[in-house]
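Handout, page 2. Input:
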Amino acid sequence: MKVRIIANPVAGGGKGRRMAEALRNALEGKVGGVELVLTKQAGDNEPEAARPGADVVVAVGGDGSVNEVANGLKNSEAALAILPAGTANVVSRELGIPKNPEAVAAMIIEGRIREMDAGIRDGRRFMLGAGAGLDAAIGEAVSQQRGRKSNLLKWVGPSIKTSLRYTFPAFRVVADGELLCEEGQYAIIGNCRYSAGVFPATPEAKIDDGLLDICILRNLNALRLIGLLPTVWNGRHIHRKDVVYKQFESLEITPLSDERVPFQVDGDPGGQLPVTIGVEPKAVRVITPAT
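Output:
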């Protein structure tokens, strides 16, 4: 078994490189070969993952790194492994993957494979989820001030400022060819249950059911959103009358005015509405811990 480790060296406040080197050291002599690649900028993971010659490609970083590697493996039989070293690490949390390099090395050697669905937008995969509205606006604000090192604290200021200024422009949502919501203002699309690493925004999502979940919030402003948060912590929000929740295979979201509605994919800026979303069942072979 040949393993290629692709690491974002500044992930998690700069610990990405150290964790990748520890993983390499733990694997050496126990697999057929180990290659360590350190990326220099966003986008480097994808072509490195696409290069032939590896049986397992390890993404060392956060959900953005996982996204790039999963897209790089589109035409490959190689399995994806994850060493979580980012800010939120939602995909690895969903899969129960440890943060310890030695534990991840043992997981890779054991080689338990799970087939995970992927969302599709404009022909590109996403693994965690996507969103239209406030979280996308916050992501844009964070990306504009993010330096070489990224950590959770860098989300605090932009999150507060953007939440207070955001105007919640409305959009229409069509799921599986039928009108689902006429005037949504904030939508979270989930392949995983959690959003932003802590909120179970799509609590009924499963990574291998061939469906994506969407949670749409209506009648919003900043104060109402704050009042909604306690119910999101335990997943009770999906039963509120101002929330629409559905599982789907295809989705279209269209703005209702000329006001820009930002969109995010796996926590990173993804342009703006309109968007069309689909699902690729059992798209990615992921190495996970034994259950």
